[in-house]
Amino acid sequence: MHTGHDPADHDHFAAYDEDPAFPLHVRGKIEVRPTVRVRDNAGLALAYTPGVGRVSQALAADPSLAWRYTWKSNAVLIVTDGTAVLGLGDIGPVAALPVMEGKSLLFKEFGNIDCVPICLDTTDVDEIVRTVAHIAPAYGGINLEDISAPRCFEIERRLQEILDIPVFHDDQHGTAVVVTAALENAAKVTGRELSDIRVVMSGAGAAGVAIANMLLAAGVGDVSLSDRVGVIGKHRTDLTDVKADLAERTNRLALTGSLFDAMRGADVFVGVSSGTVPVDVVRTMAPEAIVFSLANPNPEIHPDVAHAAGAAVVATGRSDFPNQINNVLAFPGIFRGALDYGAKRITEGMKLAAADAIAGLVGDELAPDYVVPDPFDPRLSATVAHAVGMAAIHDGVVRRG
Amino acid sequence: MHTGHDPADHDHFAAYDEDPAFPLHVRGKIEVRPTVRVRDNAGLALAYTPGVGRVSQALAADPSLAWRYTWKSNAVLIVTDGTAVLGLGDIGPVAALPVMEGKSLLFKEFGNIDCVPICLDTTDVDEIVRTVAHIAPAYGGINLEDISAPRCFEIERRLQEILDIPVFHDDQHGTAVVVTAALENAAKVTGRELSDIRVVMSGAGAAGVAIANMLLAAGVGDVSLSDRVGVIGKHRTDLTDVKADLAERTNRLALTGSLFDAMRGADVFVGVSSGTVPVDVVRTMAPEAIVFSLANPNPEIHPDVAHAAGAAVVATGRSDFPNQINNVLAFPGIFRGALDYGAKRITEGMKLAAADAIAGLVGDELAPDYVVPDPFDPRLSATVAHAVGMAAIHDGVVRRG
């Protein structure tokens, strides 16, 4: 393999390869393989010319046959511009590729879906929308990934308007689905009704906005978000369109102070920022508080600290603590359902159904340190897919009524 | 699988599925799979967060590391706009997908290369160039496929100017490489020197233009092409830029008539059109003529007819006759070599090296009915790749000198 480095490369790479993540990534993590074997000219004559020509001719007459006679019904584009990659920020399209390969790996392992990484060399909204629309015909869905707010909102909305296949920004909706599932169970285990709950969120980027919208759709009593300036509400004159819209629907108490002010008496804290929350502030929350500190790799509040301050349920984004809020609980099953049931888009109802299905898998094992199922639960993808498919039919978004 | 058809679908599909090519195509012919296994949270922590973040961070600092730590060094985009698919013509991007999947299958089986089908919903040259450039960062090469002339020439040229990875229009260059290899051996078996040979070609589209250029580069004495109007030469006032350029370098005898006129006394006929050539015209060619009738599925001259008219070597595009001119002899090894040796483009020298390597594999078995090797020859891909890589180094187009 030619790498563009000089003969001293061996030492150069050896330094990287001391970290076990690097040797695992050599030559990447995914491949494109045939699903049919071609061993001789007779096989070639079916899989390639002249046989393939008869299939193409049939598709030219009836393009809907592509759902049956091509990989389209199981193929999804994972699209990023590299502007908001993990906690690393704007690292560009090439540096984002290992994450996109990882996402493809997870889609296959957990949802048996074939995902192609597309790392765009443009961050212009118009160019991204046009480019993705141009390359969509061979794919049954679009998963947007690690695109920074607020551009991600417009890109998703415009692509979904153009395309009749699901367009899903996982950083928004995958996270929102899993947070909603976790909150449903956390409410149950602490004896709360969703309608009585007041949530305070730190962070109003892609994930924060989507979580707020979904919690409200799920029936949560009140949500207030805070960004770097403070709590978002109608008093603010500095809001983007997206945040101004949120100000209309969130913060019913018309709070005007800081994040920490808002947390006083709150039932739930959801952290999707990179800030920290002092232990004293957690102590001001309602008794048996629910704390979702999702910043990675450093949660806003360490789980031990949160528990010591009186929190009853604590979740993080990390796999080394209980209650990991991990998107892999949601996106494989959501796309599995959307693809198998022929959904043209992913509705609020489908996302809520996914959240309910994920929460339901916890079942009798529900406990303060077990509010979401294990990602390796073998029932996960099919259970979520089925719930999502039923919701798609209910919402009337499947390809033929 | 939801197909967008109504409950009577079973009968609907049964009609198609009587042709064995159709059941083979159900759900497509390719998949995207992990090359590393993730069985538990420890595996996730290396292949996905937090491990992948360290790899992405390293790539952000040194993007050339992508050649080692991502799939880029083995990943190629197969790009079509569906305008010139096999012999079917402009059937659109969705109908082209089975052919692109087949190409991906061949790339993997014969070259172990991971190829992603991109079927574009635009036929505008500017849009195609911009779109492909935007999605290129995660890929090590671009294979253009089934794009109609003359747009294919400009698209290839402009993309290669923008990108520092190989851009290769297989319908042009793959075909040209295999025709050149076949002609080298056909000349040998009929006792000719390439420099003494006069070739007449029917068809001046993508393949015809590329074959003419390559045969001239290989040292063939003269080539004349004819299109629907007649022989291309300086006497013509109706030529596109590409054909006018060819008129300067081909047709040394300044022929002005029809294809059939030009064939009188010619050593070689190469057909890459959809026309037919009468047996009487073949009789006017030089003794021991070489006839490559590459139209598919119906050769311009049936091999039996050509032999009866005196042709010594006959080749077609079909697998059910001897001497199949099949691009699969060339493109897997050419890309294998270009990728492994870090070529930034594919030069004339690399294509000629590929042709020589393909011709050489026939070796002592050379005979009038065996001028090209079997596509399943296990030496093929590595032999071509090595020759192409050496030529890339010679031509100074590898990524570091």
CA-to-CA gap between the ends of chain A? 51 Å
Helix/strand order of chain A, N-terminal first:
HHEHHHEHEHEHEHEHEHHEHEHEHHH
Tell me what the CATH architecture of the largest domain in chain A is: 3-Layer(aba) Sandwich
Largest sheet of chain A: 5 strands, parallel
SS-derived structural category of chain A:
alpha/beta
Measured by DSSP, the beta-strand proportion of chain A falls in 5-15%
Shape of chain A: globular
Which spans of chain A have pLDDT < 50 for at least 5 consecutive residues?
none
**Reading side by side through the largest sheet of chain A, how are the strands ordered?**
7-6-8-9-10
Number of helices of chain A: 17
Measured on Cα atoms, how large is the radius of gyration of chain A?
Answer: 23 Å
Overall residue-averaged pLDDT value of chain A = 95
**What is the number of domains of chain A?**
2
What is the CATH superfamily label of the largest domain in chain A?
NAD(P)-binding Rossmann-like Domain
Helix share bin of chain A: 40-55%
Indicate the CATH topology of the largest domain in chain A: Rossmann fold
This entry's quaternary arrangement is: homodimer
Query: How many strands in all of chain A?
Result: 10
Please give the most extensive interface between any two protein chains, plus how many residues each contributes. Answer: A-B, 111 and 112 residues
CATH class of the largest domain in chain A: Alpha Beta
